[in-house]
C-alpha cells in the first residue's frame, strides 16, 4: 500500500513538542498548501536539525515564525498539531522526552512509583544518562545496578502511568523508528506480512539498521529500495500507524 493511501482523517503530526520548544513556545498554527506555518515565542528554541529527521525541510522565517515543509497533507497535519496542543499532557510529553535518556524502551524492565518517585527496574544502569535527566528533574538516584529512582514530585503516579502507556503505544514506536528510516519523505510504500513491516524506500543508505535493532531484533535489506523489519505479531498495527504519518 502506498503511504499516500492512508485514511486522511487519521493523518498525524509526529514531531515531539519538545523539538518545537514545547507547548508554551507555540503561539499559533497555520498552513499553506505544503507547509506548516508556526508562530512561536522564540525560534531559537526550535530544533530544526532534529525535525528534519521527520520532515524534509525547516525554515526560520523570522525570530517568531517557523515553516515546516510537510507536503500536501499540510492542512490535516496543522489540524492534528492543534489537537495535540489542545489535549497536551505534560506527563506524556515528559515520558516521551525522558525515555531515550533511560536507554530506551528495551532497557526498562519494570515501572513503579511511590508518592514522589518514579522507580524503574532496568537492564543496564550504564545506559541511563543521569546528567541529562537532571535537566528535567533535579534528583536521580542509583539504588542498585538494576534500579534507579527519579524524584519527580506529587505527579509520580501520573508520570509512571504515562510511561506504561508510552511503552505499549504503536504511535510511539512509529515515532521512534521514523527518523531511523530517513524521515517520512524516504518512505514510498508501507506493507506488512504476519510478522514484518515491509517498506519501499527512496534511499536504502538512509536506513539506520543498527539503531533500529535496538527496538526490533532483525532488519533485512531486501533490495536497494526495500527493507523489512521483523516486529512480531504487531506488524499490521505498526504498519497502520505508519500510514497515519503520510505526507
The class by helix and strand makeup works out as alpha+beta
Helix content: 25-40%
Instruction: Report the biggest beta sheet as strand number plus sense, adding barrel if it closes.
Output: 4 strands, antiparallel
| Overall residue-averaged pLDDT value | 86
List SSEs in N-to-C order: EEHEEHHEEHEEHHEEHEEH
Could you give the distance between the termini? 14 Å
Based on the model shown, name its key terms.
247 residues; alpha+beta; four-stranded antiparallel β-sheet; 8 helices; 12 strands; 26% helix; disordered N terminus
Tell me what you see in this structure:
The protein is an alpha+beta fold. It has helices at 48-51, 74-86, 90-98, 130-133, 156-167, 170-177, 209-212, 235-243, and strands spanning 26-31, 35-40, 57-62, 65-69, 108-113, 117-122, 139-144, 147-151, 187-192, 196-201, 218-223, 226-230. The chain has a four-stranded antiparallel β-sheet with strand order 1-2-4-3. Helix 6 (170-177) packs across helix 8 (235-243). The longest helix is centred in the N-terminal third of the chain and has 13 residues, at 74-86. The two termini are 14 Å apart.
Write the layout of secondary structure elements.
Layout: E1 26-31, E2 35-40, H1 48-51, E3 57-62, E4 65-69, H2 74-86, H3 90-98, E5 108-113, E6 117-122, H4 130-133, E7 139-144, E8 147-151, H5 156-167, H6 170-177, E9 187-192, E10 196-201, H7 209-212, E11 218-223, E12 226-230, H8 235-243
Antiparallel strand pairs: 1-2, 2-4, 3-4, 5-6, 6-8, 7-8, 9-10, 10-12, 11-12
Amino acid at each position: 500500500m502506498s503511504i499516500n493511501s492512508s485514511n486522511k482523517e487519521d493523518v498525524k503530526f509526529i514531531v515531539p513538542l519538545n523539538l518545537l520548544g514545547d507547548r508554551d513556545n507555540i503561539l499559533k498554527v497555520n498552513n499553506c498548501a505544503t507547509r506548516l506555518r508556526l508562530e512561536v515565542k522564540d525560534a531559537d528554541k526550535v530544533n530544526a536539525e532534529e525535525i528534519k529527521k521527520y520532515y524534509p525541510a525547516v525554515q526560520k522565517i523570522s525570530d517568531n515564525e517557523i515553516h515546516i515543509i510537510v507536503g500536501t497533507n499540510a492542512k490535516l497535519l496543522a489540524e492534528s498539531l492543534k489537537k495535540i496542543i489542545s489535549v497536551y499532557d505534560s506527563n506524556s510529553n515528559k515520558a516521551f522526552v525522558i525515555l531515550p535518556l533511560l536507554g530506551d524502551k528495551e532497557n526498562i524492565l519494570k515501572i513503579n512509583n511511590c508518592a514522589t518517585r518514579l522507580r524503574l527496574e532496568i537492564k543496564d544502569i550504564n545506559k541511563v544518562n543521569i546528567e541529562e535527566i537532571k535537566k528535567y528533574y533535579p534528583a536521580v538516584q542509583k539504588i542498585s545496578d538494576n534500579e534507579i529512582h527519579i524524584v519527580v514530585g506529587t505527579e509520580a503516579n501520573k508520570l509512571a502511568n504515562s510511561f506504561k502507556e508510552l511503552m505499549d503505544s504503536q504511535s510511539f514506536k512509529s515515532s521512534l523508528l521514523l527518523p531511523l528510516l530517513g524521515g517520512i519523505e524516504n518512505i514510498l510504500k508501507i506493507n506488512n506480512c504476519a510478522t514484518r513491516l515491509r517498506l519501499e524506500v527512496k534511499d536504502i543508505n538512509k536506513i539506520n539498521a543498527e539503531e533500529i535493532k535496538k527496538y526490533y531484533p532483525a532488519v533485512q535489506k531486501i533490495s536497494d529500495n526495500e527493507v523489512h523489519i521483523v516486529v512480531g505479531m504487531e506488524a499490521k498495527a505498526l504498519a497502520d500507524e505508519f500510514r497515519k504519518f503520510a505526507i
